[in-house]
Sulfatase N-terminal domain-containing protein
Amino acid sequence: MKKFIYQMSSLLFIHGILSLIGAILIITVFNGFRIDTAIDWGQLHTKKFAFVTIGVFLLLCSLSGFSKMQVIREQAASKMTNSKYVRALYIIIFIWLTSFMLFGVLQFFQSGMDIDLFIDWIQGKTKIFLLSSLFLLFLYFFFLSMTGRLYLSVFTSLVLTAIFGLTHANKMTFLGEPLYPSDFKQVTHILEVIPMVLGAFSVWKLLVLGFVFILIVSYLVIIYSQMNEIKTPWWARGLMLCLSIFIFYSFFNYPKTYINALAEKSDVKIVRWNQPSNYRDNGMVFGFLSNLHVDAFDKPAGYSKKAVQEIANRIQDQASEKQPAKKGDVKNPNIVFIMSEAFWDPTKLENVTYSKDPLPVTRELMKKYSSGSVLSPTFGGGTSNVEFEALTGFSMRFLKAGSLPYQQLIDQKDFIPSIVSDLEARKYESLAMHPYNKVFYKRNRVYDTFGFDQFLHMESMKNKEMTGPYISDESVAQEILDNLKNNDKPMFVHAVTMQNHFPYAADRYKKNSIKVSGLSPASNAELETYAEGISQSDRALELLVKKLEAIEEPTLVVLWGDHLPILGQNKAIYEEAKFMEPYNPKVELQKFSETPLLMYANYDVPREDLKVMSPSFIGPTLFNLAGLEQPPFYTFLDEVKSELPGIKPGLLINNEQRSEFALSKKQQQLLKDYQMLQYDLLVGKQYSREILFK
């Protein structure tokens, strides 16, 4: 016995030393192989360091196939299985601990993999922790009813929750938004999304993650092979399946079931207007469930045919009383929309130095032609939501957080009025263009709903020259020119580019023509890649303008960036460059929303300072500049813009370009009317359609 105790103590001591060394190595890798930085990190984050060390220790203990430990396990298992009461008690405890472990995995990722925040949340939200664990318990029961194997079901549930949690953590890291149920509408494109996300990690981090994944899988396989698997009888499996389905239904519809009362007693308080806080305060389970059966657009109070038509008729009367817009010599010019992926001016990072201006052409054109900034409704992603605003004149402010109107609303409709349908009524040919997968965001179906005559994508475009991993903006420019030349009718072309899509790996292009300094080497390298990409976009714009100057067809081009680029994890480069405004959230939100806006024409049109405006006001602004007669809906949008040119979730900007102000009665009424009309045209019965889109 003494010899056994001595051997076990020695082994545990050796495991402890190896665990300490292993933890230091892991932390060193994730700190750029700098041992001094790793030591500093360990001193500042003692809980995390201890967590990593314990994890390595347990892994070593589990993988060590020492005979005496194996004998002890076999003896314990034999005693347990010989007593049905001990066996039942063991299974009950094991299952409950499993449910805690599964939710713990989810909440660990929700806490940003910060062990301190993870522990603090459990201590402060114990009731929510227990109730959420109940949901995960029946997820485990569901797999147990399918497999009939106690331990195999644990591994299956664990893998599922880990993947779910890791996906959520990565979305929070790069986009600052949680994982929504609506995100799973893109699950069919997962193979295309994975390379985009993986490209944001360094090679070393990917190697370490791969190594850790292999270790975990090996650990699970070895442990499972050594376990005395406990089988579940068929009657118990059937009972668990029925209970699981019932509990799933109760949780999935919890606002209408008894779970709602339990949630209220557990202090679950849903915060719909701030989803990151909603997930943070209520945990991953209730954060996700609270968005499961939420309509993208709530019906406004008082919505009816009479109420909508009263608003629409009033707008029509106001439009008819106004003097007709002064028309120029050009009746129906070509109109080209170019929504440029992540197109932004990086020189706004004031403490960063560039060897040359990445946007010289765009900058000169913005001085000569009407220009300003677009107030994007998104950051880093959600391109289709920006496109939705620009084409329809609707606003994301009135939709629920996490909504994807292309996939949740528009693809279910036969027709939605837009700038496409208005221009086609004027005998325009319409063309949509996107140099990527045609089914992304269901564009192939949505463009049909809008009424586009043709949709060119990566498979049908003729110009397909690549730059980095995507078709270049120069190819898109050439494709636009080719289609304008080959069509005798006036055209509306709507192009959504891909060249500058995240991530911005250092080796993305063969050579970067712009050098960046002022930040850390890794940040400089990422910024150089981004600057090179938008510099190429700038030259593509130069090509387009030069060719348009040489043709006789009058053409208007509207170019804007869909959103700011993702630069570093958790906006690390923006923070390093002192771009953040931590003490003024509205100012920071505005800074992270403004992208360049240019309205160029190859013929004489008046120049205006467009200042800051939402994408939903691009259509009426363009019609005014071109002297085109507006539909009544655009007249209404003009009135809204005159009071509130910037409208997005969480932010309003008035005509003085201020974000801090009190809404007047007129502004409040305009927003109510805007919301009512948008609901009617997008979700409701379209009572106002014939009145507002004559």
The chain has 27 helices and 14 strands. The chain has three domains: 1-64, 69-177+229-289, 305-692. The two ends are 94 Å apart (CA to CA).
